[in-house]
Write a structure and sequence with these properties.
46% helix, 184 residues, Glutaredoxin, 7 helices, 5-stranded mixed beta sheet, alpha+beta
């Protein structure tokens, strides 16, 4: 198992980190959005299409990073879902699995994860084996700890250019905050 990259101090870790984070967009984009999320959280499920719409709107001026923050005490399938996304990353399909998990967040049993891996044409046996043995648990834990160091205590939690976003997870609210950071 590849060991997780260490994240810097709390303030710096609220920015996307090349080589550690799963990124969509350029790390050099003028606006950087980090989400701490839980695949079983209904609020994260509501934010998922909002983030996609904002990404579409801002295009190349936005770098988006997703970090795992499974609230296992509230969502019993969140940890395995996060580990499945990380296992998919080792097969070069993090974002496809990320989408699959959010689009099917009411069906996150281990058998469902196997089905999603198969649907994405991943090595499903490898993926579920890695989930069951906890091969990617350290990576998920490091994401969680970085969030906790930064004051994250619920999901979704967003940081825009390293600063916590306190507004609503709506298209207009998030877009306004992101555009404001780009101009600022």
């Amino acid at each position: 198992m590849k060991s997780p990259s260490k994240l810097p101090g709390a303030k710096e870790s609220m920015l996307p980190i090349a080589g550690h984070d799963h990124l969509q967009g350029s790390i050099d984009a003028p606006v950087q959005l980090v989400e701490y999320g839980d695949y079983e959280c209904p609020f994260c499920g509501e934010a998922y299409p909002v983030v996609k719409a904002v990404q579409q709107e801002l295009g190349e001026s936005l770098c988006f990073a997703f970090r795992n923050f499974p609230l296992a005490n509230l969502h019993p399938h969140a940890q395995h879902a996060a580990e499945a996304a990380e296992a998919a990353a080792f097969q070069q399909h993090f974002w496809a699995m990320h989408s699959m998990l959010f689009e099917n967040q009411d069906q996150l049993e281990d058998e469902d994860l196997v089905g999603y891996a198969s649907a994405l044409r991943l090595d499903a046996r490898r993926l579920i084996s890695e989930v069951m043995t906890g091969e990617h648990a350290a990576r998920v834990r490091e994401d969680f700890r970085s969030g906790a160091r930064g004051g994250v205590n619920g999901t979704p939690t967003f940081f825009i250019n390293g600063i916590r976003y306190a507004g609503q997870s709506t298209f207009n609210g998030l877009l306004t905050a992101l555009v404001g950071r780009r101009a600022g």
